[in-house]
């Protein structure tokens, strides 16, 4: 892999693992949810991330591709929280930024590593 795909993959992982770290810190520590106890809220939001963990770590294109649908879930969650909760706005904006890194980095990485773009010699 050349330098550009490595940087794009790093951007993808930054967004993915950033959200994985942000959720427990944000929900469990700084802004506990009103209706759910924090461990339940963290489990509901963080559990989908673990379905893609192995494939993300092994740079599997198929896993990265379908995980981008998950990034849209966290992007939407961040937008809704930023709009509705002024107290939690910093965490929500951080979530939106990380989800955007994950989405754009993943799309660009998949395109950069496409077998069709690099025909065999």
From TrEMBL:
**Superkingdom classification of source:** Bacteria
Q: Is Transmembrane helix found in the keyword set?
A: yes
Query: For this UniProt entry, which segments traverse the membrane?
Result: 7-29, 35-53, 65-84, 90-110
The UniProt entry, under InterPro entries, shows: DUF2069_membrane
Q: Which UniProt keywords apply?
A: Membrane, Transmembrane, Transmembrane helix
Q: What is this protein called?
A: Putative membrane protein
């Amino acid at each position: 892999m050349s330098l550009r795909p490595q940087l794009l993959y790093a951007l993808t992982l930054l967004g993915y693992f950033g959200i994985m770290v942000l959720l427990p810190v944000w929900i469990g520590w700084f802004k506990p949810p009103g209706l759910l106890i924090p461990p339940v809220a963290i489990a509901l939001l963080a559990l989908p991330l673990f379905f893609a963990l192995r494939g993300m770590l092994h740079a599997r294109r198929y896993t990265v591709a379908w995980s981008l649908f998950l990034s849209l879930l966290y992007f939407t969650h961040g937008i809704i929280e930023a709009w509705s909760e002024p107290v939690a706005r910093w965490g929500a904006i951080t979530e939106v930024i990380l989800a955007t890194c994950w989405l754009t980095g993943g799309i660009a990485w998949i395109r950069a590593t496409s077998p069709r773009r690099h025909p065999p010699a």
